[in-house]
Design a protein that fits this description.
This protein is of the alpha+beta class and 151 residues long. The protein is built from four helices and nine strands, in the order E-H-H-E-E-E-E-H-E-E-E-E-H. Strands 5-6-7-8-9 form a five-stranded antiparallel β-sheet. Strands 1-2 form a two-stranded antiparallel ribbon. It has a two-stranded antiparallel sheet with strand order 3-4. This is SMI1/KNR4 family protein SUKH-1.
Length: 151
């Protein structure tokens, strides 16, 4: 498995989220995020993973940034809540963004049918939903640098 490095994106330096901030966001959305996601978001909200390429049914894509748990007034467009407000009217209930791509698409948790272990999906700008991975852990393990997908 490839070791991920995290590169600052929203802020110049890491800006860890607290467990309280994550709990508040979960309460607002009415969901419980996967444990692995909470561990990653606690340390790396607003950052870009490297490698960042992932496969999706229609080809490959890239993780641009892990959306922020908090809504920083200067960087609202990168927050989970702002992304959720943008996609909510266009996607079924149970789909919640956690990262974005350079093309303005969102990686989302899809709780429909698997509330205890949400799948990872890609919501396109046209609001089509494509499956990406069976879990957050699976998604993170599949990220690669673009030269060749992991074996």
């Amino acid at each position: 498995m490839t070791t991920l490095k995290w590169i600052p994106y929203v802020w110049d330096e890491p800006h860890p989220a607290t467990s309280r901030e994550i709990e508040q966001l979960e309460h607002l959305l009415g969901i419980a995020f996967p444990k692995a996601y909470k561990e990653v978001a606690t340390q790396y909200q607003g950052m870009t993973p490297h490698p960042a390429v992932f496969n999706v049914g229609r080809g490959t894509n890239v993780v641009n940034v892990l959306l922020t748990i908090i809504e920083d007034p200067q960087w609202r467009t990168y927050s989970v809540m702002r992304a959720y407000d943008a996609v909510k009217p266009h996607v079924p209930n149970g789909v919640y963004p956690f990262a974005s791509t350079p093309g303005g698409e969102y990686l989302c948790f899809d709780y429909r049918g698997t509330p205890e272990q949400p799948k990872v999906t890609l919501v396109t700008v046209e609001m089509f939903i494509y499956p990406v991975a069976d879990s957050f852990n699976d998604f993170m393990a599949r990220l690669y640098d673009g030269d060749a997908p992991p074996a």
